[in-house]
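Before the break, one more example. Copy the sequence into your notebook; we will annotate it together after we see the structure.
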Amino acid sequence: MSLIADKITGLFTSPCNGEDARASWRRNWEKVSSIVFNGITAFNFLFFLLLCIRLVFVYLYNAPQSYFYIGCVGAIAVLVVVFFNTTLSFMIFIACIPLAGGLFSCGILPFSPLNFGFAVLFIAWFLKNIKNLRRLCCMNVKPPLLGRLVDTLSFIAILSLVVTLFRYPWDYLLYNLTTYPNALRNDDFFILTATFVMVEGLMLYRMFTLDDVLARHSNSFRKLVYVQAGIIIFFIGLQFLFHYPPMYSQFYGLYSPFTDIHSFGSITLFYFFTLLISVSKMDDRVQQFLGVSALAVLFIALIFSYSRATWIAFAIFIAVLIFRGLRHKGAIAVCAAVLLGVVLIINAYPSRLLKSENVNVRRFGSAMVVSSLLEDRNVLGRLFWIDRALRIVADYPITGIGLGRYYGNPSQFREFSDALTRRMEKRVTGPAVKEMKKRRENVHNYYVQLAAELGIPAVVIFCAIIVAVFLQGRTLIRNNVHKNFFKGTLVGLGVYLFTMLSMQPLYLPDQSLLFCFFLALISMSHKKFTPQAACRSL
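Here is what the structure looks like once it is written out:
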């Protein structure tokens, strides 16, 4: 140990003076930071490998006999495809993300196989590259900044999981680790599911960066976005036209192939804006016709999702695009005046919408009429959840309480501030306030919930990742022949991130994987213009 300590200390005790001393310090600091971050990368991959092995074992061990055989055959097929053609395996998996959700929502599959499928894919990929694992510690190479940020966020999530698990008795811990493949939100061990969902998306990003698959075949992976949009439109048609799966009563409309209207709204907005900007610059008439047809279907789906947050995000970003597209200041002023006038008229005569016999019109009115929106129980309830999360952040600003633990509502945070309670009692009549206090619910704001569960540093790192990707996207738009596609992707990601102010889609496996795939698509396509920034660790 003393020998290692002396060696590390020697890195910073160079006899150089002046500029040479500063340059030597900088080189040594970069060397030490490379050692640390490559060590974090190796730890993340090895620990996540254990999580994947555990997940596959528990799924197969607890599955009925028929599903056991299906799972074994599927796992063997994934192993063969990965060892035969890694690029093909990645492409099939990415394309099938919405397909798996659609089959599950239609009841064809008894559970969503995404976590199981990704676990098998990761194990196969890891085994294929095991001969190169020694290069994970490429101490002479500086890892890219974005890779460092992703690794650090993964490390924080995994470390939070480890610390949380050590609080349980060993016998209780071992029993739960071998019993439930995917714990539900109200279970103590939902921390396992939540951590796996977050880290699998980040690991998908790192697999792309280390294997270099996406950078070499970015055009092929770019086309997968259109394939995914086609699969989503197919399941939208099944539910809208044939009620398969059935559409719920009143406000709960389209959601297939995803699990609820909120996650459906977030990801459908992404595909809509990506297609909108891509189609607007296409020269091929056939492609334009297909693109416009797809946009029409997605627009109808957004309306019938009945998600008010989705409608508001759509209206804001459409208005921004219109104003950016208008060159004449007078036209901008006229459009702004017309939009403002429509909103004022609707709010001046709210009863026309709110008392309509048509449930669709009433739902639209509840989103457009400001007074109704401020009195809505669901909207007011979110103030409670945010209040609870902010008090958790105040008590645990650095570490949080553990990923996935907010929904369980720790007893010390179940009460709300007196000022907020008095304000709510004036606005909501009856026992509604007491019901809100007892109700278990997510924050409906991903950033605040992430701060409550993983701490403020995790939110800062997450936002830094987004900023870095958008900066790379700007460079990509200036240099790439497919700049309209990537411009649309960036706008789509912007809308997606905006919806996360009132939703938490990244707690779902399909959303986490798709989101990180889009980040990787931009980052790896950008890599072609800055190849020196990549760390070829594997």
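The radius of gyration is 25 Å. Residues 38-326+455-536 form one domain. Try to locate both features in your own notes.
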